Amino acid sequence: MSRILSLDVSTKTIGMALFEMSDGKLLELTHITPKIKPQPENKLEELFRKVDAFEKLLTRYMDLDIEKVVIEEPLLNSNNVNTVGTLLRFNGMISKVVDDVLGIIPEFISSYDSRANAFPELMAVRTHDKTGQPYKEKDLKTKKPVLFGSYPWDIDKKQIIWDKVADREPHIVWEYDKNMKLKKENFDMTDAYACGLAWLKINGQVKN
């Protein structure tokens, strides 16, 4: 049976979700957070070593009948051009590895489209502005549904996505720190999950 692998790529952690293409069944939800030792002398060398670690992991997926690879597009909302450049560079490297190892040119989906299609119930018309003041009724008539529209403006969006995935996949054993708080790597995994689920829904493989 053909499968789809979805990735959420950051320079620290790569979330990975593997689904059956036919029915959207989750086969694996994991991440890779490479710890490069000894510490490379510069950031570019460190990225190269992290790419090497990802490539080594990806070779385990070569015989799993993966037909599609979908990657969430990097968010470019940082004011630091060096941060943006590094993220784009790393994303490109990971994309090339996917082609080299699996022979698949990955497809991309934005974070917004990923979440909106994976969990359409998150789309709603906002009824209040950032100060908590309600919009006038005439203004509400012209507003369109937006992602997280029914939630407060300052809601933790990654937590909401985690909640959604945890509800869909109650069997997953999540990672916690010593204070029993969810590790950040969990959110990379749930972003990868949303990415894959969105593709499956957009392409009619999964209905709900």
Structure described in brief:
The protein has 208 residues and is of the alpha/beta class. The protein has a single domain, classed as 2-Layer Sandwich (Nucleotidyltransferase, domain 5), CATH 3.30.420.10.
Descriptive report:
- This protein has one domain (3-123, 155-202): Ribonuclease H-like superfamily/Ribonuclease H (Nucleotidyltransferase, domain 5, 2-Layer Sandwich), CATH 3.30.420.10.
- 38% of the residues lie in helices and 17% in strands.
- The protein is built from 6 helices and 7 strands, in the order E-E-E-H-E-H-E-H-E-H-E-H-H.
- It has helices at 43-58, 81-102, 111-118, 137-140, 157-168, 185-202; strands spanning 3-9, 14-20, 26-32, 66-72, 107-109, 123-124, 146-147.
- Helix 1 (43-58) packs parallel to helix 2 (81-102) and helix 5 crosses helix 6.
- The model has no long low-confidence stretch (mean pLDDT 94).
Could you name the key traits of this structure?
208 residues; alpha/beta; Nucleotidyltransferase, domain 5; 38% helix
Topology:
Elements: E1 3-9, E2 14-20, E3 26-32, H1 43-58, E4 66-72, H2 81-102, E5 107-109, H3 111-118, E6 123-124, H4 137-140, E7 146-147, H5 157-168, H6 185-202
Parallel strand pairs: 1-4, 4-5
Antiparallel strand pairs: 1-2, 2-3, 6-7
Helix pairs in contact: 1-2, 3-6, 5-6
